[in-house]
Design a protein that fits this description.
Length: 498
């Protein structure tokens, strides 16, 4: 009997020892992952020049990692925390897509409906013929609306800004037959935002705040900058002259449904948990969430094995499905990625428009899953800025040289070392050639955006591009004017003979 009791106690001790030891192994594994993630983000932050980054990881209904890196405001050295607010950019689209599915479930609309049922004046044409565009086609970016319509979104903080934005589509024909293929156009979701207003009889911002954000306890999030009543808002930055530059872009209130939810990682953790089906909040049917993740496979994938759902991109690789989306505004960017089978989600928010935000989010997901990470990444805006910064140095240097030359020439005129002469045929031809050459340079600079693929305008480029673009633009204009003045002095004066 005693022998059996000893064996029994031995087994119990072994089991207890095993289970008490197992969490230590798990914690050690998690700690190792966290150390790698911390190091990875610090390295990427330094390379990318992003001032501030906020990261959250959720797994199986719990927030397993949440941390801020760098500054919400560089000048005041305000650190990023989990309460720091960021503009989300296009990761806002999932909220708008979710609202559409919710309204359909409640019987307010059908996704197969023609959008003109809700916005009768939205008559869009392809090849001169009016087209039927469904709610689904707007959700999946198969409406035929062109990508470059983003450059026509009006600057406005008025209450009717959303309608003004959608009306801009009336000036531009569709780029393809609705439903024929994928073309990402951010304004698709502004149209959906206006549909939400029409059927809910509420302003879009109030509907999303009251019907989506508040029920899932995203209490510190806002729908548009005009709603923000908090001192936690991060300052926004752009890359420029190879460093971060604080910048305040125009307000595009009409683009809120596509890109201007304001949130922090505390609240985004709740959003990810809801998406993964393990939220403690049961305000919404899980079926709506699942439907929002179903991709449109009626058209070809827009990237390798990647299809678009309702504000989400969906890809299957290595027998795993990933649901993700990147977001970018002129001075902010974000990236959300989820792996439903593992109930794992990662969100990265940053206060600079940079593709490094996406790389960081993808890298963190890989590290948490135990994969190796490629730390080499090229950001197009950063590379463009490096090139433009070098050209700026050359142009400004040339402008300074011309300024010295102009001052010397004027000094000689004042001292009568150069005297005025009448125009002869040769000098008249030089004047015409000189004036034309400068006029052509300035005209080419002004018209340059129009010749870019898809067409654009300087206002859009200045807002979305590196600040070095603006510096270069004015440097070329000023240098051209100085060059013209130097030429005029040379043409209308000559050296005085001793």
């Amino acid at each position: 009997m005693k022998a059996l009791l000893k064996i029994y106690l031995s087994i119990i001790v072994t089991i207890v020892s095993f289970y008490s030891f197992t969490p230590t192994i798990v914690n050690a594994d998690a700690n190792e992952k966290i150390q790698k993630i911390d190091q990875f983000i610090q390295e990427q932050k330094a390379i990318s020049k992003i001032p501030g980054i906020s990261l959250v990881i959720v797994e199986k209904g719990k927030t397993v990692y949440e941390k801020g890196f760098g500054y919400a405001d560089v000048q005041s050295k305000t650190p990023v925390t989990s309460n720091t607010l960021f503009e989300l950019g296009s990761t806002s689209k999932a909220f708008t897509g979710f609202a559409i599915l919710k309204l359909e479930k409640e019987g307010y609309l059908n996704r197969s409906d023609d959008v003109r049922k809700y916005i009768p004046w939205l008559e869009l044409e392809y090849n001169g013929e009016p087209q039927e565009i469904t709610i689904n086609q707007l959700l999946y970016h198969t409406s035929g609306i062109a990508t470059n319509t983003i450059s026509n979104i009006p600057k406005s903080n008025e209450e009717n800004a959303l309608e003004l934005t959608v009306k801009k589509l009336l000036d531009q024909p569709l780029n393809r037959q609705p439903g024929s293929s994928f073309e990402y156009a951010t304004i698709n979701y502004d149209v959906l935002g206006l549909v939400i207003e029409k059927v809910s009889k509420q302003p879009f911002d109030m509907y999303i705040k009251q019907q989506i954000l508040e029920p899932i306890n995203m209490k510190d999030s806002f729908v548009g900058l005009h709603q923000v009543k908090s001192n936690e808002m991060a300052s926004g930055y752009k890359i420029g002259l190879m460093r971060e530059q604080e910048y305040t872009p125009p307000i595009y209130r009409g683009n809120i449904p596509a890109g201007y939810i304001i949130s922090n990682t505390n609240d985004i953790a709740n959003w990810l948990k809801l998406q993964l089906g393990n939220s403690q909040i049961n305000s919404f049917e899980n079926k709506i969430i699942q439907e929002s993740h179903i991709p449109d496979q009626s058209v070809k994938p827009f990237d390798k094995d990647t299809y678009y759902a309702s504000g989400w991109e969906v890809i299957r690789k290595e027998d795993k499905q990933y649901i993700f989306h990147a977001g970018a505004n002129p001075t902010f960017s974000s990236y959300f990625i989820m792996q439903p089978d593992e109930q794992l989600g990662v969100a990265v928010l940053s206060n600079m428009n940079s593709s490094y935000t996406t790389e960081i989010g993808q890298g963190v997901m890989d590290l948490w899953e135990g994969k190796t990470v490629n730390t080499i990444h090229a950001d197009n805006l950063q590379n463009l800025d490096k090139t433009l910064s070098l050209i700026c140095v050359i142009v400004i240097g040339f402008g300074m040289f011309l300024s010295v030359l102009l001052l010397q020439s004027l000094k000689k005129v004042i001292k009568k070392q150069r005297i005025r002469v009448a125009l002869n045929m040769k000098r008249a031809l030089l004047l015409v050639f000189h004036s034309l050459s400068v006029a052509i340079i300035i005209a080419l600079i002004i018209m340059f955006p129009k010749v870019l693929p898809g067409g654009s305008n300087w206002e859009f480029i200045k807002v979305w591009g590196p600040t070095s673009i603006t510096v270069l633009f004015y440097s070329v204009i000023v240098s051209s004017v100085i060059y013209y003045l130097v030429g005029l002095v040379k043409i209308f004066t000559k050296k005085e003979k001793n």
